[in-house]
Amino acid sequence: MESASTPPIFRTADRPADPVARFEQPSDVFEALFQSIQGGEKHVRPPLALTPDSPFLPFIEIGYALRACLRDPARRDYLLQRLRPHLGVIIGTLPTSILPHGMLPDGAPLPGWRALEDIGDAELHAWLIQDGGLIYGEMQRYELDNYFDAIAPLIRPGGVMVDLGSGLGKVVMSAALTLPFTRCIGVELLGYRHRMAQERLRQLLALAQQGLASLPAPLAPETPLTLPVGAPATGRHLHDLAARIAFIESDMFKVDVRGASLVFLYSTCFGPLMDALGEKLARELPVGALVSTTTYALKHPAFQLVHYFPAGTVAWTNVMVYQRSGPLASLTPAETAALYQPDPVAWEARVRRDFDAMDLATKAAATIYAP
Fold first, then answer.
1. Hey, what domains does the chain have and what are their CATH numbers?
2. Could you tell me the pTM of the whole model?
3. Any idea where the DOT1 domain is (predicted)?
4. Which residues on neighbouring strands pair with residue 264, listed in sequence order?
C-alpha cells in the first residue's frame, strides 16, 4: 500500500553549486564528488559501430531500411503503414534512431541487407522496442537528492543496489556516496556508455583520494561520518568507494540480480519491456527486495507498491517504489497489455508535420552549401 506518512517537501531545482576550492571537512569531499558526476545528459552520442563483429548489425540493418523510407518522400506513406500497428512501442513520434540525431551510422547498406518490404512485423516490433531502450536520459541532481531522501527510510545498512540501464553511471555513483550500500552495480548494454561510466568512476576515485588527502585532519576508516541523507556511517564509506562500485557491460536481461536489495530502473523509455522486466525480477529477487521505476508501473503481482510519487514531486515524471512479496507459485500471472496506445490520426498528423520540417531543413541546407 502507498505510504500514509506526511508527504515531504521536495526540491524543485538544483541549488547553486560553487566549485569546491578547499577540502576542509568530509562534506567538502562529498560535494566535490557529486559535482564531478553531473551533466551526463549532454554527452555526445557516437554512432553504433558498423563492423563485422558489432552486436548491433541486425539493428542497423532494419534501421537502414526504415531510414531509407524516411528519406524518400515517395516511400513515406509505406513507412507510416508499417509503423502504424506498432504505435504502442514507439517512444515519441518517429523512431529515434532513424532521425538525424539518432545513433545509426552514415553510409550505404551492406551487401545483402533487406529493404523494409522484406522485413516482417515481428522483427520490426522487436526493433522498435530496442530503439526505445537506446534513448538516453538521466535524473537531475536535485531529483536524485529527492529520490534518495524518499527511499532512505527503506534502506538498511549493507545490501546491494543494481541499476539496470545505468548509462554513464550517475545513479550508481550517487547511490554509493549517499546511501549505506555494501555494493552499487551498474549494468549497461552500450559499450561507449559503459566505457564513459568507467572513466567517470576513475575520475571520481582520483578526486576522492585527493580530497581525503587534503583534509586538515585525516579521516580514519573508523571515524564517525554522516551520510548526505543523514544516516550514520564511518570514514570507510569514502575510503572504500573503489570496492563498492562496479560497472558491467551487458544486456540487463542476461545479468542475474539475485543478490540485489534495490533494483533501480530509469524506465521512462522501457515501456514495452516492463512486462518482461517484471517477470525477470519476480523470479530472481528475494522477498523484501525493492524495485523502483519511473513513468511506467511494475504490474507483476509479485510486487506490492509501497510508495508512489506523482510527476512534479520527486522528479519530472512519476516515481514508483515496489517491494517483492509472496511466493510465485501462489500468484496469478499478470495480464500482458499495451502500456499506452497513441491515437493513430493524431500521430500521423504529427509525423507529417515532422516530414515537412525535415524537408524545409534539407532545402535550407542545400541552399547554404550550394556552389
1. 26-42+136-330 (3.40.50.150), 57-135+342-368 (no CATH)
2. 0.89
3. 135-204
4. 163, 292
